[in-house]
Inverse folding.
């Protein structure tokens, strides 16, 4: 399956009852897959009139208590940001998949990692964050979509899957048990989704809102949200290490770029250079604890991104005492393994 | 025997102080909606979608499930809710800026999909909450904060947009009517149209919309009485009252 199709199937297996999308490359396979499969499952698929309409349909479906998803690519995700902000404010869970392409503007349809700031700094207006998970393989995309639904419901927040064109378009096999027997982290609590709009039968009316006009209301609401963000920061950091145990040099990369860096680490090791990789899986919250632990014996830290340098800022914030060197390619160009190897070699003295 | 009209506060209307200006039409319309939902015994089966504008906190007055929607997107939000709960009654309550300007795409496409929804469209020919700017429905010559010399099509400020007539052209739309609340007879007419629009949804007939010409004395700089008269003498010339379309959508 392609990453796009696999994320669709993962959503269906995770109990996604509502999907709305709008055509944009390179995520079209996901929308087409949902158009076919959601019908088979007798769930709701809507081709919306715009990305704006799609996110607002998801807002409505989520308010009605259904597990809901939309997907798009960079320019379309920009259009959804107002809706995502409203959902964060109204505490509505949903999974939003961004199969990133290059920007700014219409940019290019090829793969990119240039929406990191948008994803991890709120993206839309207002004081909020969106938990953001970034898969480095089709299998991981499947696992993360499943988890994203759980995290979304548990914390009542929209969750972003930050994939890119390489992950979306790559065809890889997935072990069946990943789809069939997902591990559940959160147990449904009593009164699960008692806030949802289902008709006020035998209970007071429910209101879904992010508007708080009277004095003191909004600060109180935002402080409540803030406690939630803090809890997520503590509990939802995810990362992975490769050859890091004895490494002198650590390369930090996420998503599809981590695949390239992994190969680069192998090549460097063949040349007796003790390189390792740190791969953030959650981009917000950034895995600060594990990165701090991973760099204890590290001499130099390299950051490889398919952007002009966005995640590198989180690395600098986390480990300011370390020497951090950045290499990136922009505009949809993909760094070659040799580019990474040469960059590392250029900056180390053996 | 002549039909009688009982006048008491609907139970679905909270007895809270109004935040609307004196002479505003929202109070009458909020009441009508509460009354109709009560008459149809739909309290436990209704979900309302509030707009952005003066009526953003409509849910403060109503005692049934409600959601906010961002500016213009009420019908997209309502689509999401209705598709998840097809057996519930879902309606939107939207102003002219919301429905006919920023949300025109959502309005057209929800209607064109034939979503089984009810839309109450409050036309007061201006943006009320933001200080009285030109709306798509602002009359020619009408002075607003952004048309200080009066709306002039020769200045490329456009003509009053007749959304109801446009929507009536779409096959997914089963009921389009325009009414006003300028006098008790018109209020009664509005009641009957909106009730029809709710019943259409229960009967799964398709998309229903009722446009209501509603006064905004504050922005119009008129007394409440003058505002009601202005609806009758000026607004209805551009926006004639009556049923524009009444049919069953063939699926």
């Amino acid at each position: 399956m392609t990453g796009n199709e696999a994320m669709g199937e993962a959503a269906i297996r995770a109990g996604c009852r509502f999907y709305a999308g709008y055509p944009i490359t390179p995520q079209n396979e996901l929308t087409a897959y949902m158009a076919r499969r959601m019908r088979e499952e007798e769930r709701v698929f809507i081709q919306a009139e715009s990305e704006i309409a799609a996110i607002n349909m998801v807002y409505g479906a989520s308010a009605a208590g259904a597990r809901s998803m939309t997907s798009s690519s960079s320019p379309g995700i920009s259009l959804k940001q107002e809706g995502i902000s409203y959902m964060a404010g109204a505490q509505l869970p949903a999974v939003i998949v961004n199969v990133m392409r290059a920007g700014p503007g219409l940019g290019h349809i090829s793969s990119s990692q240039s929406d990191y700031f948008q994803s991890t700094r709120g993206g839309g207006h207002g004081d909020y964050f969106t938990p953001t998970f970034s898969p480095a393989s089709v299998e991981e995309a499947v696992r993360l979509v499943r988890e994203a639904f759980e995290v979304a419901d548990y914390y009542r927040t929209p969750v972003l899957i930050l994939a890119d064109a390489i992950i979306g378009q790559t065809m890889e096999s997935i072990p069946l048990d990943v789809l069939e027997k997902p591990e559940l982290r959160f147990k449904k609590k009593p009164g699960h989704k008692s806030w949802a709009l289902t008709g006020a039968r035998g209970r007071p009316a429910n209101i879904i809102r992010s508007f708080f006009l009277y004095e003191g209301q909004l600060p109180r609401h935002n402080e409540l949200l803030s406690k939630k963000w803090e809890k997520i920061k503590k509990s939802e950091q995810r990362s992975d290490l490769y050859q890091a145990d004895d490494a002198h040099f650590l390369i930090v990369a996420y998503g599809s770029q981590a695949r390239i860096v992994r190969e680069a680490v192998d090549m460097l090791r063949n040349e007796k250079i003790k390189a390792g990789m740190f791969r953030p899986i959650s981009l917000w919250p950034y895995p600060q604890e594990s990165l701090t632990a991973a760099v204890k014996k590290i001499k130099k830290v390299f950051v490889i991104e398919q952007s002009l340098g966005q995640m590198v800022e989180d690395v600098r914030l986390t480990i300011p005492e370390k020497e951090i060197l950045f290499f990136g390619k922009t505009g949809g160009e993909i760094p070659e393994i040799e580019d990474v190897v040469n960059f590392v070699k250029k900056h180390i003295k053996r | 025997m002549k039909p009688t009209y009982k006048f008491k506060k609907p139970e679905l209307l909270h007895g809270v102080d109004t935040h609307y200006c004196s002479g505003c039409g929202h109070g009458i319309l909020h009441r009508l909606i509460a009354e109709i939902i009560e008459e149809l015994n739909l309290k436990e089966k209704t979900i309302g979608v509030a707009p952005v504008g003066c009526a953003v906190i409509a849910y403060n007055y109503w005692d049934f499930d409600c959601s906010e929607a961002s500016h213009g997107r009420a019908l997209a939000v309502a689509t999401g809710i209705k598709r998840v709960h097809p057996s519930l009654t879902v309606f939107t309550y939207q102003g002219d800026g919301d429905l006919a300007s920023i949300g025109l795409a959502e309005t057209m496409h929800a209607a064109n999909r034939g979503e089984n929804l009810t839309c109450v469209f409050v036309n007061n020919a201006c943006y009320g909450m933001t200080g009285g700017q030109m709306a798509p429905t602002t009359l020619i010559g009408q002075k607003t904060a952004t048309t200080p010399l009066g709306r002039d099509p020769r200045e490329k400020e456009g003509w009053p947009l007749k959304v109801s007539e446009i929507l009536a052209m779409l096959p997914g739309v089963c009921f389009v009517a325009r009414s006003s609340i300028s006098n008790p007879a018109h209020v009664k007419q509005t009641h009957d149209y909106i009730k029809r629009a709710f019943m259409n949804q229960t009967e799964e007939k398709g998309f229903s919309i009722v446009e209501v010409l509603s006064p905004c004395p504050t922005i119009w700089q008129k007394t409440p009485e003058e505002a009601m008269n202005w609806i009758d003498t000026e607004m209805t010339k551009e926006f004639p009252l009556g049923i524009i379309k009444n049919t069953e959508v063939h699926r």
